Amino acid sequence: MLGCGVLSSVRQGLSRGLSRKVGGWATGEGRKVDIAGIYPPVTTPFTATAEVDYEKLEENLHKLGTFPFRGFVVQGSNGEFPFLTSSERLEVVSRVRQAMPKDKLLLAGSGCESTQATVEMTVSMAQVGADAAIVVTPCYYRGRMSSAALVHHYTKVADLSPIPVVLYSVPANTGLDLPVDAVVTLSQHPNIVGIKDSGGDVTRMGLLVHKTRRQDFQVLAGSAGFLLASYAVGAVGGVCALANVLGAQVCQLERLCLTGQWEDAQKLQHRLIEPNTAVTRRFGIPGLKKTMDWFGYYGGPCRAPLQELSPTDEEALRMDFSSNGWL
Amino acid sequence: MLGCGVLSSVRQGLSRGLSRKVGGWATGEGRKVDIAGIYPPVTTPFTATAEVDYEKLEENLHKLGTFPFRGFVVQGSNGEFPFLTSSERLEVVSRVRQAMPKDKLLLAGSGCESTQATVEMTVSMAQVGADAAIVVTPCYYRGRMSSAALVHHYTKVADLSPIPVVLYSVPANTGLDLPVDAVVTLSQHPNIVGIKDSGGDVTRMGLLVHKTRRQDFQVLAGSAGFLLASYAVGAVGGVCALANVLGAQVCQLERLCLTGQWEDAQKLQHRLIEPNTAVTRRFGIPGLKKTMDWFGYYGGPCRAPLQELSPTDEEALRMDFSSNGWL
Amino acid sequence: MLGCGVLSSVRQGLSRGLSRKVGGWATGEGRKVDIAGIYPPVTTPFTATAEVDYEKLEENLHKLGTFPFRGFVVQGSNGEFPFLTSSERLEVVSRVRQAMPKDKLLLAGSGCESTQATVEMTVSMAQVGADAAIVVTPCYYRGRMSSAALVHHYTKVADLSPIPVVLYSVPANTGLDLPVDAVVTLSQHPNIVGIKDSGGDVTRMGLLVHKTRRQDFQVLAGSAGFLLASYAVGAVGGVCALANVLGAQVCQLERLCLTGQWEDAQKLQHRLIEPNTAVTRRFGIPGLKKTMDWFGYYGGPCRAPLQELSPTDEEALRMDFSSNGWL
Amino acid sequence: MLGCGVLSSVRQGLSRGLSRKVGGWATGEGRKVDIAGIYPPVTTPFTATAEVDYEKLEENLHKLGTFPFRGFVVQGSNGEFPFLTSSERLEVVSRVRQAMPKDKLLLAGSGCESTQATVEMTVSMAQVGADAAIVVTPCYYRGRMSSAALVHHYTKVADLSPIPVVLYSVPANTGLDLPVDAVVTLSQHPNIVGIKDSGGDVTRMGLLVHKTRRQDFQVLAGSAGFLLASYAVGAVGGVCALANVLGAQVCQLERLCLTGQWEDAQKLQHRLIEPNTAVTRRFGIPGLKKTMDWFGYYGGPCRAPLQELSPTDEEALRMDFSSNGWL
């Protein structure tokens, strides 16, 4: 098990821009939270009758709390947030806040399709204890989501949010890449602290780091499959579904990157690619939850219309872990 | 102005499968509603402060009520449903029910991301007066929306819906085409009566008609741009954004198709393509609402993050209508 | 068997713009060939050792010559032209010229990546007997193939070609849709007579017909799957891989469309969609050639890297024909 | 200027698998060439009348020969190979062979659409002096280019090639990604030594390195935009259009990566992203050639249908270099 203290001092030394943010994170008066580090995007456990199982949620959190994560993302894509009511979304965040270690960050997904609803959800998320809001791009009218529209949307949200805002671009779900020029513009907003980029285009990520270098703005990789490469181009952490099951390994990969042990980092990264793809693009949340069951967490069922894996898929999922030595 | 009586007898004579549905539409006991005809997907008017403007909604309905539409689609993509609260969605449907002519159909969009929420919204839509529910494919987890998952989703909704269900595939918004095999399977459900297909792939539409020919199942074109071609391959009507502004013309195109006046139909269709693209793919709902303002309806603003058209876009929009003789 | 005479008088009466082209087709002095009608895109037969089998080619042509086709497309995508040497391309066209009926048109594919090579191939195609050149969009540098670049390319080719030029847009192979504005510009060139559009977007096809209505410019459907719909929006024929095996049926569909028997046309069109998809998008040229073997033509092997169908695929291919009553 | 000696010893120490290839590169008997390093993909200069300008080609080579490149790629996508005749392709390679330093590698693009033509071109490329053949995926029939078809194609080429074969996947041009499983299978062929991967998906590149780790198989990045990230995940070099104009800088980036100076590498990488995108995806070969003119090489015109940059584009191109301090 990796110690959190080591990592946090490593982060102090190596992360881009850290020297600009002395004394830890804070909100208000233009000061920004430092979001560098690894986050599992927490899944939402359901009972057999599709109720949110808050008890299992807390149990999972207690187990996850032992790893040197920077914090937790709640209501990200892996949290099945589009399947939750507004009150469930808030209650889940509230419970996680209570169950998780005090020194870690809680990033709460507060994105909705309309700007107004996003503002309201963001304010509510702050009220139930979120440290920052992670806001997915609205996407249903993607044909009209120009840079100007997205800048307007995020600016409004950030203006009215009592907590810092993290942009969230996840084209596999939204069919929309938050344009580089929009990110650059938004990085200048005093209440926007970074982006979670799940697209996997590392050229783009490098460009984002480069063009926001004069801002207090941090880039997080949205998946463990390109975590090493993301660190290499200047990202400061990752929100990794895989960290829900291989938490120690993802944190170790972070540490190897931050301490410059690139050869070992590369070997570890290689062994994480197939498992990561399996619990994300290949088998989605059903795959992630099935794997959680294997690794001592509560995965359980998804809400419909997400379906359970077929036995064939389950076997392929297992192979993606076992062939890399994780099962 | 076209008389509704003519059209409805034309529909009786020509629409596929009508002979199987004697005595008008009804629900329950496996009997199905006949949805053949033209529908404007009603927009949701907002005040300057982004409140739903129910008065303007009713005024628009009164004007639209004079055309020989088969009915109205409420809470389709053009209704900005993702920007409305659940209670707004229901209130809008309720108001439309009261404002519209009694003899027309009200198809209410009730799709949500989760199966359970969709069921609940569908039941509620029935309670406020919808004649049928039009259910968009869930899409956020499109990577997992296999045919099996979608069949499961729609079957559950149709099982529990007190009103007939119309499938709704709109890949421009959802990034997802409801697969042909899923549609064919679902066409056998006693409470599923048809599909609104907005993809514009007329080969696919012909195949849908062909492979569901032994079912009481009807195909509606999701846009006026390919309405003539859709009739040619066996569709029985259309849900056409353009009908919000050129209602008489879209109904005339229907009549020309149903009475076999293909040469005139073709000429009219040609003149509708650019205006149609302008109020859909090219300029979206902001373009549609701007055009409504020009044509004597209340268009008004959209909710954010949708933005107003720039002056340049507005000029191009105007050209798409004027160059075809509509302005 | 349908008589060609009937069809040709039907075409005289109904095809758009025919009245402007009295006295049959001709080249030079701005007069244009009338390309209305159905064309099979001829396959290139190979021996077991992958040599062009000119004898089998001639035998196929003799059989195909009995149908009321307007002519033949040689070196279209189905002719495996990218696998032939320049001299093979010319020799195949030359042989087809000799083997085919004198009163039919020979459209020869002469597209190459560079403008200069396309010009040279077009001139050579004319020398070996082509009546018109059908010129696919260059595509390897599709990122740079702006409307301006494509207009420049086709203008140069048409300027220097001794025979009329037909534009050819086939995004499934090229990843590139010849833009509408480029087509409209090019339709004004005295030596450009039409377009073969294989994309299947019937809204676009209607718009092409509409916006070129003041030119001598004809639109051909590039596939039998949307042939009826294409006629409905103003196309005047089709280049249909399926016509290599169901020649009578595709010609019958043409006749039903041209004589306004839309109900029968629709029924026939429906039964052709799956077989058409099977020999195009689904199983490609290997599927088409396999089917030719079944229908009394010589199909034979493709050149590598195209592979033979697996037994499973072959069974699925057979089903697509038998389930529609063609086998 | 960086010395080649330093780099080559660095490569000896750090490149994956180098220990297995003692004594330099060689062909035959299962021994493989070591392709680690940086390569400019040489452009083909044309005169004002679109003839190949062999003199300018040689002049460019003499200038490029002063950088510590591992070698040169000739007839890659940037060489406009689809616009050259077969004899021009060979003559260009022959001239480059004579003009370039003896100790460097010449990788010659020999891909054609058919397997047979590719084999013949590969043999010819060997005869005019190529050290290895770099073979782009056939793509016109991409719908049929299954893993099996591609494995068959490359196996045949590699079997019959007198020189080692490098796979080449460039989806921006071909619309086709050589599938991972095909690459893994092909990596076991004794005459296939690596892949140039231009897709930019670094997760995929890491997986390729991981799953071919037991083979003598090397991965080259196909663009300078993700060169650092590629090294981080185990690539051993790159074929970089940008190296035609910023040769010293790309080689410096290589050296920084190979010597573990990741912080400096990151800074340099950042400044190369926009210039790299400008001469590849954004402005293509016309952009690259224009930039070559600025940097003391001969760029000159492209063959049609590639067009010159507009003044506006040229200004934007200049900005992409000047804003990063290169002009």
Automatic annotation (TrEMBL), chains A, B, C, D:
Entry EC no(s): 4.1.3.16
Location in or out of the cell: Mitochondrion
GO MF assignments: (R,S)-4-hydroxy-2-oxoglutarate aldolase activity; 4-hydroxy-tetrahydrodipicolinate synthase activity
Biological process (GO), any one: glyoxylate catabolic process
One Pfam family recorded for the sequence: DHDPS
PROSITE patterns: DHDPS_2
Organism domain of life: Eukaryota
Entries under InterPro entries matching the protein: Aldolase_TIM, DapA-like, Schiff_base-form_aldolases_AS
Binding site for pyruvate: 239
Active-site feature positions: 168 (proton donor/acceptor), 196 (schiff-base intermediate with substrate)
CDD domains recorded: DHDPS-like
GO cellular component terms given for this protein: mitochondrion
Keyword hit for Lipid metabolism: no
Uppermost EC category: lyase
Reaction(s) this enzyme catalyzes, per UniProt: (4S)-4-hydroxy-2-oxoglutarate = glyoxylate + pyruvate; (4R)-4-hydroxy-2-oxoglutarate = glyoxylate + pyruvate
Key words of the record: Lyase, Mitochondrion, Schiff base, Transit peptide
Subunit comment: Homotetramer.
Family (UniProt): Belongs to the DapA family.
Functional summary from the UniProt entry: Catalyzes the final step in the metabolic pathway of hydroxyproline.
Protein name, entry field: 4-hydroxy-2-oxoglutarate aldolase, mitochondrial
Protein's organism: Gulo gulo
Native organism taxonomy: Eukaryota, Metazoa, Chordata, Craniata, Vertebrata
